[in-house]
Write a structure and sequence with these properties.
CATH class of the largest domain: Mainly Alpha
Structural class: mainly alpha
Keywords: DNA-binding
Radius of gyration: 18 Å
Organism: Niastella koreensis
Largest sheet: none
InterPro entries: DNA-bd_HTH_TetR-type_CS, Homeodomain-like_sf, HTH-type_Tx_Regulator, HTH_TetR, Tet_transcr_reg_TetR-rel_C_sf, TetR-like_HI_0893_C
Protein name: HTH tetR-type domain-containing protein
Number of strands: 0
Pfam families: TetR_HI_0893_C, TetR_N
Length: 190
């Protein structure tokens, strides 16, 4: 049996991300992905048995990659606001610099394609963020609301920053980033 070609897998992932940005997750087919990746459809099925398998595999890759970036330079021992700022900035930069991936992840969250096993792995990887939010509530630094809503507010604003940056070709300066962080901070602080 011929070994899996990692370059082909990367091309398949890249093609999928491009197509999802243009047509949406529900609109793509295995034939479209194969064509975009420059492969025969049969070759694509050697790597992924169906669209759901492809989406779940790519979702895992994107989430692992994102999680490693989101928590770069984060130290749980730092004061809350510094830790929150570090993670917030990392997420913004990741979403802007890997925009197609961000669109894909966002659409996956709202789709039936992601299985419970992937969702469980996702929750485990993002545990540091959940712990930080809980700590902020315990220290009375942020609103004592359900963490789901605090994260929805934070992530929603980050997603909009990324979309506006990409769609309107805006250069994110330090001043713009800090002004937007302050807006987010003002929205969640006690």
């Amino acid at each position: 049996m011929k070994p899996r070609d990692e370059n082909k897998i990367n091309e398949i992932y890249k093609a999928t991300l491009n197509l999802v940005k243009v047509t949406g997750l529900a609109g793509i087919t295995m034939q479209m992905v194969a064509k975009e990746a420059g492969l025969a459809t049969g070759t694509l099925y050697i790597y992924f048995k169906n669209k759901e398998a492809l989406i779940n595999a790519l979702f895992d890759v994107c989430i692992h990659s994102s999680a490693s970036t989101f928590f770069h330079n984060y130290d749980p021992e730092q004061p809350f606001k510094i830790g929150f700022h570090t993670i917030w900035l990392n997420i913004v930069q990741r979403r802007v610099n890997h925009f197609n991936e961000s669109i894909f992840i966002e659409q996956c969250f709202h789709s039936p394609y992601i299985d419970e096993e992937s969702k469980a792995r996702l929750r485990k990887m993002f545990e540091p963020m959940l712990q930080l939010i809980e700590r902020g509530k315990t220290e009375h630094l942020i609103k004592n609301m359900d963490t789901v809503w605090l994260l929805a507010f934070m992530v929603g604003s980050i997603n909009e920053i990324a979309k506006r940056t990409i769609y309107y070709n805006i250069k994110l300066t330090d001043e713009i980033l800090e002004a937007n962080f302050q807006l987010c901070w003002d929205g969640i602080k006690s």
